[in-house]
Every structure is written in structure tokens, then in C-alpha cells.
Amino acid sequence: MNRKNLKNLFQEFIFVKIAIGTIASVFVWSISISTCFATDTVDLQLLSANEWRLVGPFRGGRVTTVAGVPDNPQLYYMGATGGGVWKTENAGLTWENISDGFFNVGTIGAIAVAESDHNVIYVGTGEKSIRGVTTSQGDGIYKSTDAGTTWAHIGLPKAGQISRIKIHPTNPDIAYVGAQGQIWGPNKERGVYRTTDGGETWRQVLSVDAQTGATDLRMDPSNPRILYAAMWEHGRKPWYILSGGTAGGIFKSTDAGDSWEKLTNGLPELIGKIGVDVSASNPNRLYAIVEAMPGEGGLYRSDDGGASWELKNKSRILWTRSWYYMHIAADPVNENIVYVLNAPFMKSIDGGMTFEKK
């Protein structure tokens, strides 16, 4: 079967399953709080009996991204599909919108707080969930150097939807941006960008083609020069979503983004949207949730830094509604625990072999 026919087959399979869904804020809010507690002195067993509860903000809109601060579990940031950026300093008891009056758009795709200076925050506009025909387009990157009191627009106005921002752990002037791209047509700005001067200038360090953008981006917790980018060949029309092809996949850099290698061993040739993460306790352990053809989509795992991959779980529930979800997070202290944010929220304690609804 040639590439064109194979691609059409994949698209037909994906598009007949289109349905309307909503990302619950409680699911998205939950996954980063484990990172906050990972470096705190809280005994996690004390939290085992807790149940989920909604903490707001109640007029913020559908949650698209969150960011915690590792040494301050009370401090949290939330981005919404149309409500801008919100901040809480009391673990969700109260929320304040901190983007109004500074941002030109209300749709948020990514928030990142610098580990070395918590006053430095980068925000990427444009949510990466492009299911709805009313999805708003982003207008680039905003930065705050005073913990969100004021903001400045620092570039990438044509990058479209921003999926992820990763900041160097010791130098807040070095940051990487995953640009998924504009919604309604191909654009050459899709890819991965790097700044080494705090956003004064940007360089596109990974570009596949005008149809393929970065839908996820991760940094090795033990080595900031190692990066993983999930590239998604996609497009949006008013009546359907074009998802998948042979151009996308998982790419790896070992030189801070100067060069990239496509990881293919064990992964499907025809591949759609991907979520990827790196285990902080074992950086050779990678997890990826992959949209693909029946029998090929699901939870993939690598135990050798991406050199090879194995499909561990084919359950369709892990990657349903890929236009909304495909969020995955490795537990920061246990390499065998991994979370998949979908409908519903799922947890595995055996390296992705089995999952339980939470």
C-alpha cells in the first residue's frame, strides 16, 4: 500500500470517531501536584484517602495547561481555553487572573516556571486541543519576571498553537518551545524553537515540514541537553481533523537542540498525535501515548532512552479523543508509575502494562 492510500486509511479510521468532549479541570490540575509534593516533606500516605474535588476557578474556562512550583505546593498556575492565565497562592482556595490587560488573546497552550528563579514565567498562547471549530489561535510567547504581576510579549507571533515550554533548570534565559502550528492551514513556523537570551531572539531548531508541528516537548531531568519532541502531522478543516502520516514521530536531541534524530525502532510508521514523558527517577525510561491504526495505538515504553520501543498496552481508552487529550506524565519518584489524562484519568503502577481508572 502506498503512502497516500495508507495515510487516507488512517485518516478515515480516526475521523469517524470524532465526538465532542470536555477536559475536566480536576484531571489536568491533578497531575502536576505530584511533582510539587515530590520535593516536599509531605508523607504521601497521608493523602491516600483523599478524594478529588473541584478547586476552581469557576469562571476560568476549560483547563488546557497547569504549572506548579516544586518547593511551594501552595503556588499554582492554570491556563484556560479562553480565560487566560490564573494564579493561586493558597492551593486553590482563591484564584486571580493575571493575564488580563497584558495578553492579546485568552487561549493558553503552555505555562512554565523557571526552577532557578520562580519569578520567571513563560506562557505560550494557543491551546493544542484543536477539536472545536471555534478554537482560538495563539499569538506567541509572553514572559513575566515578577511572578505574573506584569507581562511582555517576546515573540513567535506566527507559531500558532504552543504545546509545551521547557526551561533550562539553572539558566532561565534558555528555553525551548514546542510550536504545534496554526490551526487552519500549513505554516513553516511549526516545530521546536530555542532561545538563549530570555526570549530576545528565537531560533527554529527542529522543523519537519509545514504540515508537522510539535505537539509535545520534554527535557531529560538529569541532562538539560537531552530533549524529546513529539511531532504531529495534522491539519484542521471546518468539517474534520486531518491527523497522522509518516512525517510525524518522536525526535531526540542530545546537543541542546542543535541536531535531532527520529526514533523509529518499535514505533508505528503511520503515526498520529503523541504525548511523551521522561521518568525523573530513571531517565532511560520513556513513556509515549500514541495515536495510530488499530492494534498499533496505545502506550509505548522505552527502557533505553528511546533507542527502542515496545507497545505495552493497546487499550483504546488510553488514546481516545486524541484531538483533546494525549497527555501523559511519569511519576517523579517511581519509574513504574505513569498517568494518562484522558476520559477517564488513568494510572498504572506496573510500567504501563495495566491501568486503573482514578
Offer a quick outline of the entry.
The chain is mostly beta strands and about 350 residues long. It has helices at about 5-15, 25-40, and strands spanning about 65-70, 70-80, 85-90, 95, 110-115, 120-125, 140-145, 150-155, 160-165, 175-180, 190-195, 205, 210-220, 225-235, 240-245, 250-255, 260-265, 275-280, 285-290, 300, 310-315, 325-330, 340, 345-350, 355. The chain has a single domain (about 5-355), classed as 7 Propeller (Methylamine Dehydrogenase, Chain H), CATH 2.130.10.10.
Describe this structure in words.
The strands form six sheets. Strands 13, 14, 15, 16 and 17 form a five-stranded antiparallel beta sheet that branches. Strands 1-2-3-4 form a four-stranded antiparallel beta sheet, covered by helices on one side. Strands 5-6-7-8 form a four-stranded antiparallel beta sheet, with no helix packed on it. It has two helices and 25 strands. It has a single domain, classed as Methylamine Dehydrogenase, Chain H, CATH 2.130.10.10. Strand 18 and strand 19 form a beta hairpin. The longest helix is centred in the first third of the chain and has 14 residues. It is mainly beta.
